[in-house]
Amino acid sequence: MHELSIIASLFEIMEEKAREKDAKKITFVKLQVGKLSGVVSEFLFTAFDVYKKDTIAKDALLEIKEVPLKIQCQKCGKNMIKKDFIFMCTFCGSQDLKTLSGTELLLEKMELEL
Amino acid sequence: MYNLPSGFNRNMSKKEILVLEDILGSNKKIASEIRSKLTQQGILAVNLMSSPGAGKTSLLECIAEHLSPAYKMAVIEGDIETERDAERIKAKGIPAWQIVTGGACHLEAKMIGRLFSEIPSDLDFLFIENVGNLVCPASYDLGEHLRCVLLSVPEGDDKPKKYPKAFTTSDCLILTKTDLLPIMPFDYHQAQKEALELNPKLTVFMTSALKDSGVTELVEFIIGTQQKLLRHNA
Predict the structure, then answer these.
(1) Range with lowest mean pLDDT among B6-20, B21-35, B162-176
(2) Could you tell me if residue B59 is left (phi over 0), alpha (psi between -120 and 50 degrees) or otherwise beta?
C-alpha cells in the first residue's frame, strides 16, 4: 500500500504546475498507470480522495487510464500485449524482448481553472 | 440575459494542460544522483527486497563474515519500527544505520540521500535492507547498482507470479533458508521457473545463511560486479 506516497508525489507535481499557470483550482486530473507499475488503481482513487481535501484540487475528478504491458520481440520484431507478464515472445518463443509500455506511472494531463 | 447561478464567475476560464510527467520522477532523479556518487567512489550498492522474515538480516550477517576482512561494507536498514536490525549488524563490527519509517512500507531515495554524508567513502559495498514487503519497495529506485529479491523456502514456490514487480525489476533472485528444503513442500525448480518467466535476466542463487551454504557464490558475484564498476571507473 504505497499508493498514498504515490499520491503525495503526484500532488507535488500538480501543485507546482498549478502555481506556474497561476491557476485557482485543479478540476480534473488524468493518470496513466501501467499494468506492471506495481500500483493498484483502486487504491489510487481512495488515496486521491483523502489527499485532495484542503488542497487546490479539492473538487478535482480523477481519471486513470490503465496501460497494458506491451512488448516487442527483438528477434521476430512482432509487438504483443502480455496479460500474464511472462516474458516470452508469443510467436517465436524468444526472451530477447523490449518493454514498450506497461510500467509507467504518469501524470498525463490536468484541467485548471484560471 | 441568462440568470447566472450565484457565485458564478463570468471571467472563469478552464484550461487543459498536457503534463506527461513521471510521478516518481523526483525519486528517480535523487536515485540517479546517489548512484553516480557511489559509482565515483567505487562503492557498489545492493538493494535487498523481500517479504518480512525471508532472512535479509541473517543473509547480511553471513555475507559480512565472507567479506571481512578483505572488503569494507556498511548497511542501511529500513524498518517500520525498532533499531533491532541495525544493532544485529553493528554487533558484527559493521557500520549500520537504521531508517525507521514510522509506518511507511518502503524506502525512498530521499531517505538514503539524507544519510549520504555519513557514509564512509572508502567502502566497497553498501547494502540497503529494504522494509520487509514484497510489493511497495519494488516501485522505488534507491540508487542501487544491484537489486536482489529474496524468496525463502517457507514462503512457498508460488510467490513470483503473485508479486511480479519485485521479480521483474530485480537483477538477482536469492532463494533463502534452503536448509529447510528436505522438510518443506517447496519446488525450487518451479520457483526458479516462475521467476525466470517473469524476468529471464535474473541470476539465481540458492542460499542458507544458517548453514552458510551458497553464500560463497553470491558473494563472488557481488565482488565481481563491484570489480566491473571499478573497471568502468578506470
Answers:
(1) B6-20
(2) alpha
Q: Is B210 on the interface with A (CB under 8 A)?
A: no
Interchain proximity B18–A39, CB inside 8 Å: no
Q: What is the pLDDT of residues B181-218, one digit of tens each?
A: 999 999 999 999 999 999 999 999 999 999 999 999 99
Lookup: cell for A61? 475528478
Q: Give every CB contact of residue B34 below 8 A, 6+ residues apart in sequence.
A: B45, B109, B112, B113, B116, B142, B143
How many domains is chain B partitioned into structurally? Answer: 1
Distance, CA of B191 to CA of B54 (rounded, Å): 15
Report the gap between the CA of B133 and the closest CA in chain A (Å).
Answer: 10
pLDDT given for residue B1 in this prediction = 47
B residues 157-176 lying closer than 8 A (beta carbon) to A: 161, 164-165, 168
Say yes or no for a CB contact (<8 Å) between A109 and B17: yes
pLDDT bucket at B145, cuts 50 / 70 / 90: very high
The angle formed by the CA atoms of residues B148, B151 and B157, to the nearest 5 degrees, is 135
DSSP B134: S
Residue B2 in any domain: the answer is no
Taken in order of first residue, the domains within chain A and their CATH numbers are: 3-113 (3.30.2320.80)
Rounded distance between C-alpha atoms, residue B48 and residue B174, angstroms: 9
